[in-house]
C-alpha cells in the first residue's frame, strides 16, 4: 500500500482521512472503499480528490485515502 504521506499536496500520496482538509472530510461519513472524496483545500489553494483505499471500522478518521487529483 505504500508509505503514508502526511502532505495533502502530493498526488499519489496515501494518508489517513483525518489528515485531509476539512472540505474533503465533510460528507465523508459513511464512506466505503473506492469512494472518491473531493474538496477545495484553502491552505494550499488547490482542488483535491482522494480515493478511499482502506476502511478502519474502529476509527473512521484512520481510514486510508490516496490522492488522485
Task: Quickly describe the structure.
The chain contains 1 helix and 4 strands; from the N terminus they run βαβββ.
Describe this structure in words.
With 69 residues, this protein is mainly beta. The protein has one domain (14-67). Helices cover 6% and strands 32% of the residues. It is built from one helix and four strands. It has one helix at 22-25, and strands at residues 14-16, 36-41, 46-54, 64-67. Strands 1-4-3-2 form a four-stranded antiparallel sheet. β2 (36-41) and β3 form a beta hairpin. The model has no long low-confidence stretch (mean pLDDT 87).
How big is the Rg?
Answer: 11 Å
The arrangement of helices and strands along the chain is EHEEE
Structural class: mainly beta
Q: How far from one another are the termini?
A: 18 Å
Overall tally of structural domains: 1
Estimate the global geometry from the Cα principal axes.
Answer: globular
Helix percent band: under 10%
Q: Give the strand tally.
A: 4
The order of strands across the largest sheet is 1-4-3-2
Indicate the proportion of strand residues: 25-35%
Major sheet size, sense and barrel closure: 4 strands, antiparallel
Average predicted local confidence, pLDDT:
87
